[in-house]
Design goal:
Elements (H helix, E strand, L loop, with lengths): L4 H18 L6 H7 L11 H10 L6 H30 L5
């Protein structure tokens, strides 16, 4: 099992790992946006909803700040993807990307 099954599943595992890492910071902002109201606005805010409310919000839109936070989120995601790809190269000897 350790010499045949596990090495055969490693490529599938790393592909699924990369796909899940790509969506790790996206958590369904649409659901939070639909159920947001004045009573739960302070407790329901997630990163994507913060970016949306900062950039297009009704209070005072701050598009540069929303852009910077969105770019920072993208940089973190890309860093995590390259780290997982490097782990794949270390364990399997070949990269996925």
């Amino acid at each position: 099992m350790w010499h045949i099954t596990v090495p055969g599943l490693l490529s599938t595992f790393f592909v699924l790992l990369l796909l899940s890492i790509a969506n790790i910071l996206s958590n369904g902002m649409e659901q939070y946006f639909v159920f947001e109201n004045h009573m739960n606005r302070q407790t329901i805010e997630v990163l994507d909803l913060y970016i949306f409310n900062t950039g297009i919000g009704a209070d005072s839109p701050n598009i540069p700040l929303a852009t910077i936070v969105g770019m920072f989120k993208t940089i973190i995601s890309v860093t995590l993807l390259f780290t997982a790809n490097r782990a794949s190269k270390w364990l399997r000897g070949e990269t996925i990307v």
